[in-house]
Amino acid sequence: MTERLAPNTPEDVIAAVQWAAANDAPLDIQGAGTKRGWGGVIRTNHVLDVSALQGVTLYEADELVLSAGPGTTLIEIQTLLAESGQQLAFEPPDLGPLFGQPPGLQTLGGVVATNLSGPRRIKSGGARDHFLGFSAVTGRGEAIKSGGRVVKNVTGYDLCKLFAGSFGTLGVMTTLTVKVLPAGEKTRTVLLYGLDDGVAMRALTHALNSAHEVSAAAHLPAGIAGRSAVGYVGDVARSVTAVRVEGVGPSVEHRCAALRELLGIYGEGEELHGHNSRTLWREVADVATLLPDTEKAIWRLSVPPSMGPTIAQICAGVPGADWFYDWGGGLIWLACDAADEAGANVVRTALDHSHAGGHATLMRAPDPVRQFIPPFQPQSAGVAALSERLRENFDPKGILNPGRMAPEPG
User: Fold this and answer.
1) What are phi and psi of 260, to 5 degrees?
2) Is the pLDDT of residue 268 over 90?
């Protein structure tokens, strides 16, 4: 039977972790649990639920900084920021529906712990790049702090870079401080129709290398595009290549017109304004609308954009393969049949044999698959040894989310 520990204060977290360390009791650290199916299977009967550590504790709009508890929902934060015309510039996606959860539940702690970022990453960076500071409890039951409340902070070691994307294996964060930025006044998206994957990548690269400050670039093959709720995308029965610009009105209008002229050599196009543009990029970010089959496994491949079509074609050999591109072709979202090893051999071999580099993450698969297929790209021996020493430093008994990022011994 699962025992749920639900601390209400940072002091409660310290007590809970100290108890777990003293009793060699592994902890499954959860907030809203919207990404519970991402990563390896954690085998424990003890859940540390930090969802009660919520609420914005600091927001200084003039200083572009916000602090909040890990259980604070992004909806609360984004609503507050919108009142001042600001945003989380890394455009965090809501992956809850991808894992069978309702939308709108994800928390700040979960987004930073998994280092999530959406289509704007190609311009603004990921969650890690906007993470300024935190307080946490290590696996030793010790309280630590890192970073600060200002954008420029060079004191001590940059533990933010380590904790962002650590999936709770280094410590339990109790407060987080992030950088915020002004939101664009207007959004427009240039669409190109009917391009194959290779030509689409050339068009996206052309746009990204231009002077027009593109903030998102994606390509949806015809079958994927047909699932969009945006008429100019879902009703055209062709592939759709999309490029977004954001900012003040006159600048957006000028850059959009310039991009349409620049990309006109690739064929027929269209233009999306405000609501339709925001809807399309939310679909690209959240994935579930475009890859809706809940029975399929989901892979997330980070690759050099120029190699994206080659790798996708290799992965097309996996039964049930279906995919689209984000980040100018550098991110491939791939759905495939979840039977056996969910195409792991083909997917990871594609990266190795193409000499493309990058990594393939098994984002979603049934528990039996995740128990024997490493969800994250296997590390080289040297990097794996360094990662293990790092974890031992913060969590010597291995009680924090054991097995989430790497298989447990045996």
Assistant:
1) -65, -40
2) no
Specify whether the CB–CB gap between 100 and 75 falls below 8 A. no
How much of the chain exceeds pLDDT 90, in percent? 85
Q: Within this chain, do residues 35 and 175 fall inside the same structural domain, yes or no? A: yes
- Asked if residue 43 and residue 79 are part of one domain, the reply reads yes
Query: For residue 287, what are its two tokens?
Result: 């994935």
Q: How many CB atoms sit inside 10 A of residue 345's CB?
A: 12
379 vs 161: CA distance, rounded Å: 18
Rounded CA separation 324/252 (Å):
26
Contacts of 338 (CB under 8 A, 6+ apart): 295, 296, 297, 365, 366, 369
Phi, psi of 131, rounded to the nearest 5 degrees: -95, 110
**63 and 117, same domain (yes or no):** yes
Q: Which residue range forms the structural domain that includes residue 196?
A: 186-286
Other CB atoms within 10 A of residue 392 CB? 12
Cα separation of 75 and 78, whole Å? 5
Please check whether residue 133 is in contact with residue 152, taking contact to mean a CB–CB distance below 8 angstroms.
Answer: no
Burial of residue 55, with CB atoms counted within 10 A of its CB: 0-12 exposed, 13-18 middle, 19 or more buried: exposed
pTM: 0.94
- Indicate the range of 52-66, 129-143, 152-166, 205-219 predicted with least confidence: 152-166
Contact 157, 394 (CB under 8 A): no
The percent of residues in the chain predicted with pLDDT above 70, rounded, is: 96
Give the number of other Cβ atoms within 10 Å of residue 164's Cβ: 22
Same domain? 264 vs 323:
no
- 27 and 137 co-located in one domain: yes
